[in-house]
Write a sequence for this structure.
């Protein structure tokens, strides 16, 4: 069997060879992220049959849990690791042609560190190790937001850094409280001992950890940094921040709230928080005239929807939430990547400047349309089964409060539809101000967009196999006893 | 021993944490905000050290039999803090280098004057 440690070790090692390769040839460095994420994707596929049988637990350093650091590669961890390497591969193919100027070598190095941090967070079974990988993810994304080095980029990067650092400090205080209470850092061991102390003393660490991770996951009211950071970063980085970084934050919240703490009293609170995030994100997106800010606010909305689905904590709704998460990674990636070249050609981020792009850049406009329709939830794209599973899973619970919240979810979908249709209408049915000359995005960017479009359509037409796998991943998240059992054998 | 005396490390740690948070929230100069972040970090590190610390404790070395294990200081929090300090230094370095770039663009470090991006 291949060792899952390689999922973290290979990108980390290759990240630090990038400057060496860069001193020989700057052009060669852009292929390193492609190789690393392709390697990770193949490794995930090879690990798949073994993980389907039983989760793999790796002891780093040879100490058996609860003493050493361990990696836990279950259904959910493998799903996220695969998703990160898939999105990483597609965005790095896109960057082959998109990132040409500036500090290219540093860009590729930071990009790979970001992927390493994200993979580490989803695989680790030790809560302090989670903090360390989380910091790797955060620090590399602060630097990448400032990559262009213009006024907006620097300003949003410093805002992101200040808020993110305060969040990380809160997370660390929470971890300190947990260590003080239980004398262990192993998540399975904490989960096992959590019922030995009274619930009141768990409230403070739980709140600190959720608030700390909530900054990165962009849960309202901790998301003031997100629209600035996502709109000022280069489009490839916006795609990876929207598609990977905030989802990983959400994963960490879900893992800690469900698997480690498992206090069902806070679930309804998280569901309300999710709906609030959803409504605020969609309403702000509706008011934007800048295309990238609109997409960034739409990410906040989608995160709220996924948080709502996860917080319902039933197998059906969590399956729907994870399906929507995959859909969000793919379609928001597609939207940012296609918008990136449309902005590049039109020279402006205003939505009105994209009028008539349907004739100027037919394939790129088609990609934007597919992404927008999938995010709204139109069949036959991947958003339809995602939203359908969430709504049906929530209605199955049959509580009045949840039914009202589902009504709000559907209302927000209407708002989402309105602003996306407005852009798509402009692409195809409005006349451009300037003369029309057909143009094309470079081949590498088109390949990346075509792969994403294909995946979205395939997932939308054949959702069953993926939904079946997500169902077992959902029970991996919710079933605390089997998680503890498989780590502390 | 009084409550304050027995919990003096925790009082000090949370005093630092709250001071840091206050500075981050109320100061307008970016450098002062970054100093606030640093104080916040120090407070967190001190809190974690205090969890494992024993008054009159010794190093956890098991080779000398005359030292009893109840008197040993827990080494795990100290290892954690070592990692946290390194991370804090990295964040601080990045923040300061970003503020140099910010000053070149805007000509000021006053956060009230740097408001180009809005909701």
């Amino acid at each position: 069997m291949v060792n899952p440690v390689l999922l973290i070790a290979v990108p980390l090692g290759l990240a630090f060879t990038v400057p060496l390769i860069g001193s020989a040839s700057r052009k060669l460095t852009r292929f390193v992220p492609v190789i690393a994420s392709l390697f990770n994707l193949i490794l995930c596929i090879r690990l798949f049959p073994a993980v389907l049988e039983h989760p793999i637990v790796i002891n780093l350093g040879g100490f058996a849990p609860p003493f050493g650091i361990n990696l836990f590669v279950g259904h959910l961890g493998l799903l996220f690791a695969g998703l990160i390497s898939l999105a990483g591969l597609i965005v790095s193919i896109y960057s082959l042609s998109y990132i040409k100027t500036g500090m290219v070598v540093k860009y590729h190095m930071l990009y790979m560190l970001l992927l390493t941090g994200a993979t580490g967070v989803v695989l680790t079974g030790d809560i302090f190790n989670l903090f360390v990988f989380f910091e790797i993810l955060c620090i590399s994304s602060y630097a990448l937001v400032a990559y262009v080095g213009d006024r907006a980029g620097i300003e949003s990067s410093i805002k992101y850094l200040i808020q993110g650092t305060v969040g990380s400090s809160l997370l660390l205080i929470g971890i300190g409280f947990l260590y003080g209470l239980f004398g262990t850092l192993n998540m399975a061991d904490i989960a096992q001992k959590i019922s030995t102390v009274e619930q009141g003393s768990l409230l403070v660490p739980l709140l600190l950890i959720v608030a700390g991770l909530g900054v990165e996951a962009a849960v309202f009211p901790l998301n003031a940094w997100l629209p600035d950071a996502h709109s000022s970063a280069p489009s490839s980085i916006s795609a990876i921040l929207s598609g990977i970084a905030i989802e990983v934050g959400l994963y960490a919240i879900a893992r800690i709230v469900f698997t480690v703490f498992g206090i069902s009293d806070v679930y309804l609170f998280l569901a309300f928080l999710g709906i609030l995030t959803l409504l605020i994100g969609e309403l702000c997106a509706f008011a934007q005239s800048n295309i990238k800010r609109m997409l960034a606010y739409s990410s906040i909305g989608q995160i709220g929807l996924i948080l709502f689905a996860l917080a319902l904590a039933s197998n059906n709704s969590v399956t729907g939430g994870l399906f929507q998460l995959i859909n969000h990674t793919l379609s928001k990636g597609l939207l940012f990547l296609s918008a990136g070249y449309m902005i590049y050609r039109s020279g402006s981020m205003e939505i009105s400047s994209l009028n008539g792009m349907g004739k100027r850049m037919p394939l790129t406009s088609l990609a934007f349309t597919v992404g927008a329709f999938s995010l709204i939830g139109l069949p036959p794209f991947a958003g339809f089964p995602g939203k359908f599973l969430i709504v049906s899973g929530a209605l199955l619970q049959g509580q009045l409060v949840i039914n009202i919240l589902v009504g709000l979810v559907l209302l927000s979908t209407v708002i989402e539809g309105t602003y996306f249709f407005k852009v798509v209408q402009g692409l195809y049915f409005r006349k451009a101000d300037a003369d029309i000359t057909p143009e094309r995005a470079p081949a590498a960017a088109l390949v990346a967009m075509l792969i994403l479009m294909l995946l979205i359509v395939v997932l939308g037409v054949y959702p069953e196999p993926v939904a079946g796998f997500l169902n077992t991943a959902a029970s991996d998240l919710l079933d605390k006893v089997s998680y503890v059992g498989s780590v502390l054998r | 021993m009084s409550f304050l005396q027995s919990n003096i490390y925790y009082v000090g740690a949370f005093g630092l944490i709250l001071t840091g948070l206050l500075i981050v929230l109320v100061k307008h100069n970016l450098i002062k905000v970054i100093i606030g972040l640093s104080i916040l970090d120090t407070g967190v590190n001190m809190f974690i050290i205090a969890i494992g610390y024993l008054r009159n404790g010794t190093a956890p070395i098991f080779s000398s039999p005359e030292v009893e294990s109840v008197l040993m200081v827990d080494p795990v929090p100290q290892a954690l803090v070592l990692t946290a300090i390194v991370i804090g230094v990295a964040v601080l370095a990045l923040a300061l280098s970003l503020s140099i770039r910010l000053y070149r663009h805007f000509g000021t470090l006053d956060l009230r004057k740097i408001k180009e991006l809005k909701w």
